[in-house]
Amino acid sequence: MSSACAVLESEMDAIPAAEPALPVSRRPVMVILSFVRRRWIAHTVILLAVLAAVGCSVGSQYAVKQLVDVLSAADKTAVWSAFAVLAGLIAADNLMWRVGGWQAARSFVAVTGDVRRVLFGHLLGHAPAYFADRRPGMLAGRISATGQSIFKIESTFTWNVLPPCIAVTFSIALLASVDVALAGVLAVISALLCLVVMRFAAGGNALHRDYAVKAAVVDGDLVDVINNASLVRAFAALRRERRRFAAGVAEEMTARTASLHYLEKLRIFHALSTALLTAGMLGWAIWLWQRGQASAGDVVLVTTLGFTILHGTRDLAVALVDMVQDLARLAEAIEALLLPHDLPDAEDARPLRLPRGEITLEAVDFAYPDGRAVLADFNLKIEAGSRVGLVGRSGSGKSTVLALLQRLRDVDAGRVRIDGQDVGELTQTSLARAVAVVSQDVLLFHRSVLENIRYGNPAASDAEVLAAADAAGCSGFIADLPQGYDTLVGDRGVKLSGGQRQRLAIARAFLCQAPGLLLDEATSALDSESEHMVQAALTRLMQGRTVITVAHRLSTLRDFDRIVVMDRGRIVQDGSPAELENRPGLYHDLLRRQGLHVLDAAVAA
Q1: Which positions ≥6 away from 233 have C-beta within 8 Å?
Q2: Given this chain, do its domains 23-337 and 348-434+515-605 carry the same CATH topology?
Q3: What is the pLDDT of residue 21?
Q4: Contact 250, 177 (CB under 8 A)
């Protein structure tokens, strides 16, 4: 967890109140429809524009037929009327496409924004265990890919699937004016052809999904290596990583080639089928003309409509198979991102009331999902405003206690209470606002120093940020940075030293103004000089707060009110530092291992 105020905060508060809710269904089509409904008026305008445009396009072909018949009859008075109708339909056709395109440029892009905001908000609501099992690069890539897939699906459907469907339907209806039997046979054959194409396309879902998974893995590998570029260089692993990445790309390319080859088989089948269908339709029209049952204009109409049907069904087949690929990628991303939260707020969750900082764990049992038991019948009460250190051997359950207090995990049995209120019945936002956290592993955003400190309280003024930085002992080194408070700290704060990162985290915690403070090995990885500066800042931070700290260096706990010694998930000793120092037991043994009693004896001498 970030070594800052554990505030589940303002980024989500900034989302508009009208933000679309999380889709109920996990089926790709239903997910898309849930976002389209959010902007149904704009999408209705686009739909009507496409219908009008295609209607004008097919209607213009009938107008050509009328013009040919008028010219054949040498009717000079009607020719200009037929021309005006044809010109008007052509103009309306082009105008309607532009109306739909203009509206789509706004609406389709807006949908991608809705999608990414909702997925990002849902992703942040997952428990830490979710992120521990997944690569950040893959998750980020899937959010972007989901927005892009939905944009492509909407665009493909609107411009490449819907128009051919409408055009073919209108064309068959117009053919009925020439010969009802011809229109009927064509309608049946077209419907059968569409069913075969759709069934054939669905058969490639496994190939398309395999490609989507391998593409996500490559994205994850790429981000993982970039984030650890210094490690790659330190171990001279550049060639090794190149080979590994090349192997991943090769697998992705193989999967994509298999997916595309399947689609090409479908296109070949469709091309042969539509070519035979169009030839048969034109032959039928010429046969009708020979029998005097069709005019020259009718033959022209059948010819133009035949090409419309040929091109329409061809475009439809291409668009459908492309949509199948996009839907497969969307389905893969949805399955990874739209998982239910492990630790959701209770339906009747309420905010923490008047937090003072009293903490109670009552008969708590806890085991990790792999079955590893950590706490058993664990009881602990900490008075508001007191400072308590948790010590013990590695694996004794100290960090687990901190995780349960933040509700990063749920207990298997028992209760965890803050000021008498069960944390499982509280909103996680109010719980996070009541507790500031500083840990050994400091996490910073690749943002400015000012933004990283203000993350603890987005509403803080510049003056408050400067005061927090001064209290945490940051002012001196910040003044030496190239742009001062505007200096970018680099990915995870890589441009700063360990001590500087810790003091920024403490400044961030100062801004929280939370009554509770959790310290998890906050100074264990620092050198002596940095530890001294950080410890001084922590002492100021602890004033007036309930403090629980997990510490490896026991010398940092001597001024605490109480030491709780843990072993194998149980409390084995509990008392003030002075009481436990001279009492036989685990704490006394830990002191001796760190040479603290020897140091005391030397000072006394």
Answers
A1: none
A2: no
A3: 60
A4: no
Kindly report the number of other CB atoms within 10 A of residue 477's CB atom: 17
CA distance 403 to 391: 15
pLDDT digits (tens, 9 = 90+) for 437-494: 888 778 788 888 898 888 888 888 888 888 888 888 888 888 888 998 898 888 777 8
Strand order in the sheet with 421-422: 373-382, 359-367, 413-418, 421-422
Q: What is the pLDDT of residue 379?
A: 92
The number of beta carbons lying within 10 Å of the beta carbon of residue 85 is 16
C-alpha 139/C-alpha 219 separation (Å) is 9
Rounded to the nearest integer, the mean pLDDT of the chain is 79
Which positions ≥6 away from 131 have C-beta within 8 Å?
139
Q: How many CA atoms lie within 13 A of 115 on its CB side?
A: 29
What single DSSP character describes residue 554?
Answer: G
What's the N-to-C CA distance of the chain in angstroms? 44
Token output for 30: 């239903």
- The architecture in CATH of the region 348-434+515-605 reads 3-Layer(aba) Sandwich (3.40)
pLDDT digits (tens, 9 = 90+) for 122-160: 888 887 777 777 777 678 778 888 888 888 899 888 888
Decide: 550 and 519 in contact? Cβ < 8 Å: yes
Q: What angle do CA 396, 402, 408 make, to 5 degrees?
A: 115
CATH topology of domain 23-337: ABC transporter transmembrane region fold (1.20.1560)
Domain ranges across the chain: 23-337, 348-434+515-605, 446-513
CA dist., res. 326 & res. 323, Å (int):
5
Where do the DSSP E strands lie in 470-585?
A: 516-520, 546-550, 562-567, 570-575
**Amino acid, res. 518:** L
Is this structure's pTM higher than 0.85? no
The first and second tokens of residue 208, run together, are 């398309």
